Structure formats: C-alpha cells, structure tokens
Amino acid sequence: MLLSLLLAGAVVVTGGSHSYQYFYTGLSDPDSGLPDFMAVSYVDNQEIFCYNSKMHREDRCANWVQEAVDPDFWESEIRSLRGWQRGFRKNLVTLQHRYNQTSGSHTLQLMYGCELGEDDSTRGYMQFGYDGGDFISYDLSMRTWVAVVPQAQITQYILNEDNAALQLTRAYLKETCIKWLKMYLEHGKAALQSKPPMAQVNDRSSRDGLATLSCRVHGFYPKDVAVVWLKNGEPQTQETSRSGVVPSGDGTYQTWATIEIDPSSNHDYTCHVEHVSLGADLRVAWEKKPESSLMLIVGFVIAVVLVLVVAGAAVFFCRRQGAGYKAASTRDGSNSSGSLGSAA
C-alpha cells in the first residue's frame, strides 16, 4: 500500500525519455512485520535496488546494476540510507508535534530523481509528503524549498537558510542524478529495451452456468500496459476486471484481465493489448469450444451402441428360437419312431 502511494506521485515516463527515481518511506508506528524505514530505486520504472530497516542491507534487484557500480558503492549507499533512516525517525516525532498528533501511526515520504528527455532536456524533482499529502518541495528553477502546507513553513525557513545544502541539492538534481541515469542506461541497455507482451487466453466454468475468460499478459517492458476484453470488436471497459501489473522476476512484467460471459451466446470475445513496444495492438481471440460438434459425436456414439445392442438382442433371440425348433423336431421324430416300432 505504501509503495502504491509513492508511485501514485511518480513521474510517468513516455516516448524516448528516461528517469531515475528514489522513494523513501518512514513509519512512526509500523504494523507487525513492517519495517519502520524503506527505500527503493527505479530506472525507467524498473526496480534496481531496495533497502529496509529490517534487513539492514541493500538488495540489488537487477543483475546488470552490479556491473554499473564499484563494489564500494554498496557500503557507502547503506551508510547513507541508515543516516536517512535516523533522520526520518526524528522528523516523524517533530511532525507529530507540528500537526498536534499524540497517537496513531504516521508516514513520512520522500521522492526525488531526474528525467532525461528525448531531446536531451533534463528535469529534477525532490518533495516530501506526510500522511499521504504533500508537505514541502524543492523548486529547481528558483533554487529554494516551497512549503505546501502551513506546518511546513518552519522547515522551509530552516532549509532555505542553508545555502550550502541548497547548492548541493541543485547540483545533484541538475548534474549528478543525470550522470548516474546515463551510466545506468548504458549498462542496462539490454534490460531496459522495450519488450513486447505475450498474451494467453483460457476459460473456466462456474456453477451458475457462466464462464470466466482470463487473459494473461506477460513478458513486457516497460511497465505501462492497457488490457481490455472486446465483445464483437467493442471494448468492454466496465465489464473487464484487471489485476495490478507485477514484476515477473526477470525484468519484465505481467498482468491479468478477466470477464464473465454466457458461454451459450454467439458473441466473439477478444483480448486486446496496447503497449509501447507494439507496432500494432495485440489481439488474441477466445476460441469457443465446438459444443455442437461434440454433441453430434456423442449422439452418434450412442446411436451406434443402441444399434449394436439391438442387433445383439436379435441374434440372441433368433438363436434361441432356432434351438427350440430343433429340440421339438427331435422329440416328435423319436415318438414317431417308437410308434412305428410298436406297430411293427
């Protein structure tokens, strides 16, 4: 849920542009099993490494990232994240006082990163959020922090008084972040190339006589994809149920789309997929099972069985009648012979 909240405010990268983004989340009173601090980093919406306060180490989610940095990078990164972890813990206490909160679990979030446009234009951003709402953000053009809510005005004053920190923030967003992004793009060429989706359609019956058509779309990159079921060529947007887009574990993504139908109807259903890697939309039709042909085959088999049964019964009765006739004839002949013998 926290990751979804973070990604809701993420920059959407389209066309030939690229992005490098960090997301930090701190919890004042996490539920059982959750860490109180989490950090995750993305290049073009592909998760490259992550960290949380429970594992006390960074997890490199993409293998190609290991080739892009020196071994010492991971140790320095962990030290930096532990510093952020301590800072988030202190800031959560301060913010609860600012908002006059005495209990409950509260969330502090940070999103920062940069974007490289197709025309080599650049853009940097850094912003904090508290309990799901905007708190304060850095204006790169003005080189100052801007408070979004009244509770952030004290923070705005403190941050804007530190000229050295302002210059470092600007230098990172304007130069350092772009430098790292270009390096990652160079090392991750193969992994970050667009990969077209594949789609598989199947069906399953339910007790109420309906059927559920399922379309599994997988193997695609980047993450953004549109999937909808078509009925006789018309999009069934409201009727289509979609799952979230999730990582497949190999740098690609997968998702599902389902729809409930009456299998006895004569409508045509097609899974329709749109993705940036496709020259034309991908369409996979549901092939309805030939129930009528199946019934003809079953009927033919039943007819053959009935014919065999009737034929067998006829042969059986004919044989019995023939045997009875011979027995009667033998008895009649014996009696005649006996009579003739007696008469002689």
From TrEMBL:
GO terms for biological process: antigen processing and presentation of peptide antigen via MHC class I; immune response. Gene3D superfamilies: Immunoglobulins, MHC class I-like antigen recognition-like. The chain crosses the membrane at residues 294-317. It is a single-pass type I membrane protein. It is found in: Membrane. Keywords: Disulfide bond, Glycoprotein, Immunity, Membrane, MHC I, Signal, Transmembrane, Transmembrane helix. Its main location: membrane. Residues 1-16 form the signal peptide. The keyword Transmembrane helix applies. One of its GO terms (cellular component) is external side of plasma membrane. Pfam families: C1-set, MHC_I. Residues 196-283 form the Ig-like domain. Belongs to the MHC class I family. PANTHER family: MAJOR HISTOCOMPATIBILITY COMPLEX CLASS I-RELATED GENE PROTEIN, MHC CLASS I-RELATED. This is Ig-like domain-containing protein. It comes from Alligator mississippiensis (American alligator). The lineage of its organism: Eukaryota, Metazoa, Chordata, Craniata, Vertebrata.
